[in-house]
Q: What sequence folds into this?
């Protein structure tokens, strides 16, 4: 029996179900966030396409930021990078809208899709199938893309996509966490939400669980800190929710040092207790992050 996709309108990811099967979103269950009220939870993508469009904002001559409107899911960005040997998409949106499909086609389609972590899988099934682009993931996240097609795994610290784009394995919210380093424009590090940027203040943040604001352990963050310190970059583009355009590495290292000393929790047991602690999470905090 074939399975068909539904969009979880709370997080924006796919749930693949059979006829008569009750849908359940693994990502929302893992995030331990209260069920939304007064909203249809699971909707077929085709039902949402007529009412949604994609904002496409150019950041550099060869980089664009994509964002679906009206808001859908946890409200993060995807980044499209135009490359001579084939374009790539870093992270994903919840829906392939008709205008986005036409725009990507006009840019020459897609060669590769990179996903920083499972929170942003979204419509990677639609993008991958429509444009024939494989989805590249680290092997340690192999349990997560159930139902998604065209997934190719690698098991190495880095993956070179071409002479100016390299994927780096940086475990964060998930063991298979990926960041992308682009060597043009003074070198740009695309961090997913390993490091996040406030759209208002431009301040950095990092959480093991963003909705519940649970920190990383000291050991987890030591690895993040060391791997980011090993990379050379001057700009930082985060999928949640903005960019740092100058002195990005200096700011990232200063943030990492302060986080390791004052925010990170001692061990996984402390972290586990915080993750399981019951508290009311306002929808604005859950989505706006």
A:
């Amino acid at each position: 029996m074939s399975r068909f996709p539904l969009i979880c309108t709370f997080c924006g990811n796919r749930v693949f179900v059979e006829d008569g099967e009750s849908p359940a979103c693994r990502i929302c269950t893992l995030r331990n966030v209260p069920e939304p009220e007064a909203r249809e939870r699971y909707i077929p993508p085709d039902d949402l396409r007529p009412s949604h469009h994609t904002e496409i904002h150019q950041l550099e001559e060869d980089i664009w930021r994509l964002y679906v409107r009206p808001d859908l899911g946890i409200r993060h960005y995807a980044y499209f990078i135009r490359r001579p040997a084939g374009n790539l998409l870093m992270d994903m949106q919840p829906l392939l809208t008709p205008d986005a499909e036409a725009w990507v086609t006009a840019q020459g389609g897609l060669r590769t899709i990179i996903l920083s972590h499972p929170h942003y899988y979204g419509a990677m099934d639609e993008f991958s199938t429509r444009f024939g682009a494989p989805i590249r993931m680290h092997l340690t996240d192999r349990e997560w893309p159930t139902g998604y097609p065209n997934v190719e795994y690698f098991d190495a610290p880095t993956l070179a996509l071409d002479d100016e784009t390299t994927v780096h394995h940086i475990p964060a919210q998930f063991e298979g966490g990926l960041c992308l380093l682009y060597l043009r424009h003074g070198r740009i590090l695309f961090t997913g939400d390993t490091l996040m940027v406030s759209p208002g203040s431009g301040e950095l943040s990092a959480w093991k669980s963003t909705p519940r604001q649970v920190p990383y352990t000291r050991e987890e963050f030591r690895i993040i800190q060391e791997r980011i310190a090993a990379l050379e970059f001057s700009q930082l583009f985060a999928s949640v929710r903005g960019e740092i355009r100058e002195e990005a590495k200096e700011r990232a290292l200063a943030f990492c040092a302060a986080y390791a000393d004052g925010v990170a929790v001692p061990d996984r047991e402390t972290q586990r207790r915080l993750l399981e602690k019951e508290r009311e999470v306002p929808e604005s905090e859950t989505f706006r992050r």
In short: DSSP finds eight helices and 18 strands in the chain. The two ends are 39 Å apart (CA to CA).
